[in-house]
Amino acid sequence: MAKCIVVGGGFAGLSAASLLLENGIDVHLIEASPKIGGRAYSLYNEKFDDEYDNGQHILMGCYYNTISFLKRIGSLDYLDFQKSLNIPFAHRGNKISFLKTTEKHYPFNLLAGLMNYKAITVHERLKIIDFLIDLLFCYEEDLENITVKEWLNEKKQPGNAIKAFWEILVVGALNTKPEKAAASQFAHILKKMFLEGDEASVLVLPNASLNKIFVETSLKYILGKGGSYYVSEKLNEILFDDKNRAATILTDKNSYSDFDFVIVAVPFYSLLKIKPFDEMFKNYKAVFSYSPILNVHLWLKENNFSQKFYGLIDSKIHWLFNHKKHITLVTSAADNLIDLPNEKILGMFYSELESYFNLFQRENVVDWKIIKEKRATFIPNNNFCSVRKKIDSPFSNLFFAGDWTDTGLPSTIESAVYSGHLAAEKIISKLVTA
Length: 434
Ligand SMILES: Cc1cc2nc3c(=O)[nH]c(=O)nc-3n(C[C@H](O)[C@H](O)[C@H](O)COP(=O)(O)OP(=O)(O)OC[C@H]3O[C@@H](n4cnc5c(N)ncnc54)[C@H](O)[C@@H]3O)c2cc1C
Prior knowledge:
- With 434 residues, this protein is α/β, with parallel strands linked by helices.
- Helices cover 33% and strands 24% of the residues.
- It has 13 helices and 20 strands.
C-alpha cells in the first residue's frame, strides 16, 4: 500500500488526506499546532456553554470541491443551503433592503433580484446589470494589471453602486479593497458565482461550529480509514535523494523515511521556514501580502435579531451573523481597526449597531470576545496573481497544497480544498499509471 505524509491540518491538508484514504492510499498527517483546523477553528465559551469560531466562515453554492469534501467526511448536514440568493442589507436608521432572487428562471431571476434591490437607484441597478452582461464576453487575460477599482471606473459604475453593491462583494469575497484587488481575480469569481447556474450564487451557512463541521469529522474519517495523525509536530526540513525525490522528513519530534509521497499543505509564510523551501522560494516573498479579518462575538441577554445574518451598508461592520446565544460581527480587510485596543473597537461597534438596529442595546450584552486574525488571507493583487502560476514543486513525489497555490481562486476554503484535491489526484494518477 502506498503511503503519503501530509503536512498541515487545515482544509487543504484534511481534504487531501481524505481523498487519498478514499482511494486506498495510507496517510499520516502532521500538524504543527496543538489543534487541527488551521485558520478555521472553534473556541469554547464556558460561561455560556457555547462553541464559537475564530471567524465566521461562509461558503457558496459554487464551492464544489468543499461540498464534495464535506460529503465524503459525512458533514453536509451541518450546512444550510439557501434555496435562492437572499441577503438582507441593513442601512443606518433601522431600514432593511433585500437582495433576493426567486427560485426559478435563471438567469432572469438574478436580473429581477437586482432590479428589486432598493438600496440603489434604478439607474444604478441598470448599470450593474450592464456590467454583468459585459462579463459574459470578458476575458480575464484582458484585465491583467488593472485593479477592480480601475475596472469599475472603466465600466462607469456610479459611486453609490460601488458603495452599496460592488465594494461589499469585493471585500466580502476577496478580503481586499477594490483599489488593491486584481480585476482578473474578481472577474474569475464573478463568473463562478453568477454565470454557472442558479445554485452557484446561493450562500451556504454553517449551522454548527467549524470544529463539528470539518475538524472532528475529518479526524474520525482519517482514523476510520486506517490513517493516523500527530498534532504539535512541526516539519523543519525535507532531505532529497539523488533522483530529486523527497526521501527523509525531519520534524521537531521524528524522522520519517517510510513514505512514497509528501503533500506540504502549509501557508506560504510557513513554507519559508522549512528547508530547503526557505531558499528555493525566497524571491517570491515580496509578492505575498496578507489582509486581516476582525470578528467581534457578543453574547446577548435577549436576542431579538430576526434574520440569520445581515450585510451592513457603508459601516465599519460588514456583516452580522446571528448564532442565537451570540451574534458575530465581521469586518473584512480590517487594516484600520486591527491594531486598536479591544475596548475602543467594542465602543465603536456598539455605536454602529445602535445606529443600524433599533433593537440593539449595549446593556443587553453579557459577554464579548474579540478575535483578530492578522494574516487571515493573502491579498490577490496583480503581482501575486502573475507570480502564483510559477510556483510549483520540482520534485516528483512532493506536491504543495494550500489556498495560496495556483487554483485561480482567492484565499478561501474552496481554494484550500481544491488545492488539496489537486495534490491528491496527482498522486492517485501516478499510482494508476505506474
Ligand atoms: C477570520 C477568518 C475568516 C474567514 N472567512 C472565510 C469565509 O467566510 N469563507 C472562506 O471561504 N474562507 C474564509 N477564510 C479563509 C479560510 O479560512 C482559509 O482560506 C483556509 O482555512 C486555508 O486553509 P489552508 O489549509 O490552505 O491553510 P491553513 O488553514 O492555514 O492550514 C495550514 C496548516 O499548516 C500548519 N503548519 C504550518 N507550518 C507547519 C509545519 N512546519 N509543520 C506542520 N504543520 C504546519 C498550520 O498550523 C495550519 O494548521 C477566513 C479566514 C479567517 C482567518
